[in-house]
Design goal:
single chain, about 325 residues, alpha/beta, 6-stranded mixed beta sheet, 11 helices, 14 strands, about 20% strand, elongated, binds alpha-L-arabinofuranose
Length: about 325
């Protein structure tokens, strides 16, 4: 029984200095000198261009960000979830935050591409922008202050290494992907494809849009089309893995036994399913990084150096025992 593999890496240092000077000028407050919010008691205004409802992980992450950037901590956070995941609604919110002259912007993008012009506008307005979880493509670090997220490539690579150990003689597998066009989906595919053994056969890789229902119907169709000859599912999030488990049961098979199922996120629901043997391997994608985001915003507004890529530590669970042990204190 083993529990943990932690991912931690720190990359380049972003030039926050230039940004901070401007920000202090426009907000009148000198955020960053205290360990939270403006030192003169004035609240630091934050525009949070968010994704909105999308599943257990997203709810945990966005609640953690809102709880962290509280008034008690010296912040006035304006929460702007996307309308049905639509990028245009995010760009509209982002632009209005610039026009309002907020002190900093947090962005969880629903699409990886198409952010250059508004990010340039934020720079002209000297408003630091921190990317949360989702990256942008092309990944021009000169366009934003910092990107904070767990290591999608590393997490998927560890899932593939576990699968290689489970199937030394090879096997057939299916990938259930998140929505196309997202950096996390591309990075999870990259980590998996670079580490999965050559004797493992990828039968299908299809999007199920982070959804349990969609994953159930997609995998039911794939099982039928392959006479149930599938030994493994790599689901890019917990909800889709739980959908695959339902499809396996629908086919009269036993999830976790006849078909092994890997998921990413590490929500309570997934750990409960792992503890019950219905999932096989759960890689956490830690959503609780609000405090790190506060430090980055404060440092940027104070003109201190900020790392452009901050990796949030995450762990993996590879047995029912490991899940059972973690469940009592699980916060999401
Ligand atoms: O961007 C992270 C992904 O978005 C999570 O893995 C998924 O559950 C969420 O919806």
């Amino acid at each position: 029984m083993s529990r943990t593999t932690s991912f931690r890496a720190i990359a380049g240092i972003a030039l926050a200095g230039a940004l901070a000077l401007g920000a202090t000028a426009c907000s009148g407050g000198s955020a960053g000198s205290t360990d939270a919010g403006g030192s003169d008691g004035e609240l630091t205004t934050i525009g949070f261009v968010a994704v909105g409802p999308e599943g257990g992980w997203r709810t945990a992450n966005e609640q953690n960000i809102q709880d962290s950037f509280s008034k008690e901590n010296g912040f006035d956070l304006k929460y702007a979830p996307a309308t049905n995941g639509d990028q245009n609604s995010q760009i509209t919110a982002f632009t209005s935050f610039i026009d309002e002259g907020v002190d900093a912007i947090l962005l969880s993008a629903t699409e990886a591409t198409g952010w250059e012009s508004v990010l340039e506008r934020a720079q002209e307005a000297e408003i630091p922008v921190v990317l949360l979880d989702r990256g942008i493509e092309p990944n021009d670090t000169g366009l934003y202050t910092s990107h904070i997220a767990p290591d999608n490539v590393g997490i998927s690579a560890s899932a593939a290494e576990w699968a290689n150990g489970q199937f030394p003689d090879g096997g057939n597998y299916v990938v259930l992907e998140g929505p196309p066009g997202l950096s996390v989906v591309n990075d999870r595919n990259k980590g998996w494809d670079e580490s999965i053994a050559s004797n493992m056969t990828k039968l299908e890789s299809q999007s199920a849009n982070w959804s349990t229902e969609e994953a159930k119907s997609v995998f039911e169709t794939i099982l039928k089309a392959n006479n149930n000859d599938v030994q493994l599912v790599f689901a890019q999030n917990d909800e889709m893995g739980l959908g695959a488990a339902l499809a396996v049961e629908e086919a009269g098979l036993k999830p976790g036994t006849d078909v092994k199922i890997i998921t990413i996120d590490g929500t309570k629901a997934a750990l409960e399913a792992l503890a019950a043997g219905r999932l096989s391997f759960v890689a956490e994608y830690n959503p609780l990084f609000g405090d790190t985001a506060i430090d980055v915003v404060n440092d940027a507004l104070a003109g201190d150096e900020v790392e452009s890529d901050i990796v949030v530590p995450s762990v993996t669970f590879d047995s029912p025992e490991a899940a059972t042990e973690a469940l009592p204190d699980r916060k999401f």
